[in-house]
Specification:
The protein is 16% helix and 41% strand. It is of the alpha+beta class. It has 5 domains: 143 residues, no CATH class; 118 residues, Immunoglobulin-like, CATH 2.60.40.1930; 131 residues, Immunoglobulin-like (Sandwich); 120 residues, Immunoglobulin-like (Sandwich); 59 residues, no CATH class. A hairpin with a 2-residue loop joins strand 6 and strand 7. The termini are far apart.
Length: 705
Amino acid sequence: MLPTSALAAGGTWGPDATPYRNGVVCTSGSVDTALVSWNAAGGGPGFGASPIQSGFGSTGEPSTSGIAVPVQASSTGLDSATVAQLAYLISTHGDDTSAGVVGDVADGVLQLTGTATSSVDQCLAAGIDGTSTVEAAKLVAEARRLAGPYSVELTGPSTPTPAGRQIALTASVTSAAGDPVPDLTVTFSPSGAGTQLSSSSATTDAQGDAQVFARSAGGAAAADAGVTATVSASTGLTETTTGGTVAVIQPAAPQRYSDHLALDVDTRPDPVLQLTDSHTVLLNDGTLGQSLTVTGMNGHQGSATVSLYGPLKLARSGCGSHTAADWAAARAAHTTVQAPQVSVTGDGSYPVPVSPQLSPGCYESTATLQTTDASPNVSAKTTGDVVTVAPVTVAAAPDHGGLAPVGSLQTVLHATSSFTTSWQGVQGEVLGPRAATDGTCPTTGWGSASSAASITSTAPATGPSDTAATDGSTTSAVTVSSGAVTAAGCYAFRLTATLSVTGVGTTTVSLGPGSRDTAVHVIAPTVSVTALSTSGVDSGGHLAATVDVASSDGQPGSLRLELLRLPYTYRGCFGADWAQAPVVRTRSTPVLPTKGDNTYRVSTAAVPGSACWTVVPVFTASANPAVRAQATAGDDPMLAFTSTVRPRSNLLESATAEVGSGTAREVSVGLVTLAAVVALMLVVFVAARIGRRNHAIDPRDRLLG
C-alpha cells in the first residue's frame, strides 16, 4: 500500500491534539509519521530527535513543554559537528513556508541523528505533499558543508593607505568544513576616532565574501583606526524532554564569530592643490574671487599663499601671446598684486580673500602650501592660472530713470570697451515689491525679497551716442524685459548676463539688486475732482477745478484739465450720457506742475462755445510720460453750462460761488432746475392768454378784419 498524506501544513497530532507549526503527516501502512515542526519550549521551530509515530495501539508524543536545556554532545551520543549541522539545518530551513520543505527538514534531522525508519523513507520516496528523498539528502549535504563553527577573516590593502582615502575591506566567512558560506549577514563596526564606513552590514556572496568601504582620519586618530567584522549564527542545540515521549530539539542562541583589522594609515602629508577662479575673464576694475581646494593632507595642517602677478599688457588677441619667460620675469620682479595667507586645517576647500580692483591686463595666479606639523614638513604648488582683465565697463540703465507704471519692466545693459563686445544671453528675475522711503527705493535688504516676475525677452538696443566719441570705445547694448508686475512699489532686477569680448573670451556678469542702476519704482497714481469753480461760464471764460493727486509716491509731474462737451438740450445739462462726450481740443491748455500727493487748483483752457461742459483731470509723471493717471466723467459729474443768456439771479450766483462745496453744487442744481420750470410755466401762461384773447374777439370784428 502506498503512503498517503493525512494532513499537511499546520494542524494537531495524536489524541492530545498537540499543535504543530508546519509539515506533513504521512501514513504508510498502519503507521502514521509526523514529519513536522513543533512549537518548542524555546520558541521553535523544533523537530523530533527521533521518529514521532503512531500505530499498533500507541502514539508517540513530542516533548514541547518544560525547559529547553542545552544539548551536550557527550551525553546524547551526538558529536559536536553533528550538533552544529542540526543547528544549521533547522535555523536555515526549519521555518520554511512550504510544508514539503519542512517535511524534508524533519527527515534530515532523523538522518543526522541516525534514527530514520523505513516508513519515513517510504513517505519521502512517494513525494507526499512535496517531500522528496533527493531534496532531503541535499539539505543534509548542505548542513554538513556549511555548518559552523565559522571562521571570519577581514582583509584590506596590503600597503599603507593615505588618511582620508576610501579603501575596500573584505570579510570572508568559511564553515567548519572549510567551505565559503553564502547569504550570511556580516556586521561591521569601526574603531578609532574618525574612522567611517560606507555601511554597517553586508551579505556574503557565493564566495562567502562581504565587502565594505572604509575611510580613516589622519593625525593621532590614525593610530587606533580599525574595523571589526562579525557574524552571528547558531552552532548548538537545546532540547525539551518533558511533556511527551520524544525529545524535541531546536537551535541554541546564536554565537558570534569576528575578526578585527587594524587599518594601516599613511599619515605622511602628500598635499595636492587646486586653485579655482571665479572668472578667467574679468571686466574693468573687477575683483577676483578664488577658492583653494586641498587634498592629501592626511590630517596635517599648513599655510598657503595665493599670489597674483601682473599686469602684463593685454593684446587684441588676449593673454595667450605671453610666453613662460614673460611670466617668469613677472614673478622674478615680484610684481605681485596681492599675496594673502590661507590657513589650512586639513583636506577641504578654502576661500581666498577677494582681490583688490584690478586694472586691465594679464595676471597669473598661483598657490603655494607648506605643512606646519609634519615631520618632515612638505610643500606643494599649483601651476599658474591666467586671469584676463578686459577694459570693459558694464552698466544698467532702467527705462526712464527707473520710474514705470504697472506692467512689464525694462532695463538696458551697456558694455563699453575699446574691444568689440556682444551680449550672448541674459537670465534673471525681478524682485519685489518693497515700499519706497520718501519717494526713493531702498538699495539694501533685497536678499529676502520675493520674485515678482521673470525675464521674458531680450533685444539689441542702441548704446549711448557719445561712447564712440574721442576714446575709440564702442558700446553694445541689450534691452531686457520682464513679465508684468501687478502692484505698485519698488522692484529690482537681478540679472546674470554672458558677455563675449572678441579676442579675450567670454565672462559672466552679475548685476543687482542693491544699486540705483537696477531699481525700478513702479507707481499707480490716481486723480479726482473734488470741486468745480462754477456751474455757469461765459463762452471764452475758464473753469477751475480742485483736484486731488494720490499714490504718486512723491514723484513730481504735471496736471491739466481736459474739457468734455455735450450739447445743451431742453433738459439742460443734467442726466446726460457723459461716457459719449468728446474731448474738446484747445490750442493752449494750462499745465500745473505737481510735487507729490496734494490738492491742486487747476484751470482749463478758454471754453470755446455754448454747451454743457465738465472736466477730466490728467496727471503725467515728469520722469516717464507712460506713468499717467486720468479720471473719468461719471453719470453725474460736476458740470457747468454756457448760454447766450445766462441766469442773473443773485441767489444763483451766490449759491454757486462756493468752490468745491457739495451743498453749493446741490443748490445750484436745484436752482437751475427751478429756473427751467419757471421758464416753462411762463411759456404756457403766455400761450394761454393769447388763446383767450382770440376767443374774446367779436365775430363781426373778424369779418371786418
